[in-house]
Design a protein that fits this description.
heterodimer; A: about 220 residues; mainly beta; Jelly Rolls; seven-stranded mixed β-sheet; four-stranded antiparallel β-sheet; 3 helices; about 10% helix; about 35% strand; B: about 190 residues; alpha+beta; six-stranded antiparallel β-sheet; five-stranded antiparallel β-sheet
């Protein structure tokens, strides 16, 4: 069991300096921050390198659809755009894309699962028929002191990016979450969706669904 | 005092029961059924289509409306199971505005169970950011409240400015909202709760 990871939020917040835990790496590249939807000068974004060999991760392939773990699923209608002035389209199916030519291409959704559940996977379904751009979904924990004011820190828990065009562009991608337990006392959890890297390409980059897979009943 | 055989059995049973209860609560990760629900600021819904919301780098919301008319309030609906106790709502935000404060109202809105009737709005608790610049956090504590979700809806309102008034823009942000509630039926939480 990786104790420093379990207590990451506590350590971060007691000290109010995320750099106190060496496991977390600060995201400081302005271009990367901007691509993630943060101000290029942000100093409160951190990433934990994922360990896909974590023995605690369930092997999902043999399970099929057997619900041995719980899921929290979000469709396009669960997301809110970065500005309520932004244009978007749900394609009448609860999907989400930004219309061709639009410049606002970021949206987010809150994630709420029962306290203390282990976070296992971030899954994304969508359509990427763009030859030049990809879409990504990132699971964040935004943490503050549990019972007082303090600067928020954003922790990247998992990231998925659409692949190059496959067939008609429909894809499924997932990422693993290093050993982390849901702690809504200290942190809020969000999925940040970024539809491409330039002006919007319409339905060529469409979100179908995002799913956070968690541990079952404790 | 000596403990005879029945006394020892009673002690053992009490000890075992204690372990069972303790492990149930430890496994559930909660004490006495308390539970937290956390919402990022941008997940709130504008109460008026004239209210334009933006998002900061922490998933917080700010009002980007100018001096146009309309309400300046964001609503955070709470999904509270019936009979849960509403302990508190904690809010976090940033107030760098000299002119505006972010004010909150925890509200329940109730109607008859099986008949028509206008909603009766009751403000359960209030809080507001202060004039001190920077990060703030406030706690809203209602008087003892057992949720009656069969007849009432519960939500938090965050107001960036009085109705029809100009907003303070990025200087006033609602970053996060956290509801603390309690499941009084903690014994069944581990075995039967979803």
């Amino acid at each position: 069991m990786n104790f420093p990871l379990i207590t990451f939020a506590v350590g971060m917040l007691v000290s109010s300096h995320a750099s106190a835990d060496p496991a977390w790496i600060q995201v400081s590249n302005p271009a990367e921050l901007a691509a993630m939807g943060f101000p290029a000068t942000a100093v409160n974004v951190w990433r934990l390198p994922n360990d896909s060999t974590d023995p605690g991760l369930p092997d999902r392939a043999p399970l099929g659809s057997t619900p041995t773990n719980a899921s929290y699923a979000m469709t396009g209608e669960d997301f809110v755009t970065i500005s309520s002035l932004s244009d978007y389209n749900s394609a009448a199916y609860g999907h989400l894309y930004c219309p061709t030519g639009a410049t606002s291409r970021i949206a987010s959704a809150s994630v709420n699962v029962p306290t203390d559940r282990r976070l296992f996977f971030l899954d994304m379904w969508g359509r990427d028929a763009s030859a030049t751009q990809d879409m990504s979904a990132t699971l964040y924990a935004t943490c503050q002191p549990a019972d007082g004011a303090g600067t928020p820190n954003n922790f990247v828990l998992a990231e998925v990016t659409s692949p190059a065009i496959v067939g008609d562009g429909d894809f499924f991608e997932f990422d693993t979450v290093s050993e982390t337990y849901f702690d809504p006392q200290r942190c809020g959890y969000s999925v940040n969706l970024v539809l491409g890297s330039g002006t919007c390409v319409g339905s060529d980059l469409t979100l179908y669904k995002v799913r956070v897979v968690i541990g079952g009943n404790l | 005092m000596r403990c005879n055989e029945p006394c020892k059995m009673t002690k053992a049973l009490l000890l075992a029961a204690g372990f069972v209860l303790a492990s149930a609560q430890a496994n559930a990760g909660v004490l006495y059924g308390t539970d937290y629900d956390s919402y990022n600021g941008r997940s709130g819904r504008p109460s008026d289509s004239l209210l334009s919301l933006g998002r900061d780098g922490n998933f917080g919301a700010y009002c980007q409306s100018g001096a146009s008319s309309g309400r300046r309030t964001v609503v955070y609906p709470f999904d509270i199971p019936d009979q849960f106790e509403v302990f508190s709502v904690r809010v976090w935000g940033i107030d760098d505005s000299a002119s505006n404060n972010l004010s909150y109202e925890l509200v329940k809105s109730c109607q008859p169970f099986l008949s028509g009737g206008g909603p009766v709005r009751t403000v359960l608790a209030t809080a507001a950011s202060s004039g001190t610049p920077g990060n703030f956090s406030q706690l809203l504590i209602p008087a003892e409240q057992v949720a009656t979700s069969s007849t009432c809806a519960y939500f938090l309102e965050a107001r960036f400015a009085p109705d029809n008034s100009a907003c303070a823009g990025f200087d006033l942000r609602s970053v996060r909202v956290r509801l603390l509630s309690n499941n009084p039926d903690v014994i069944f939480r581990n075995g039967f709760a979803p």
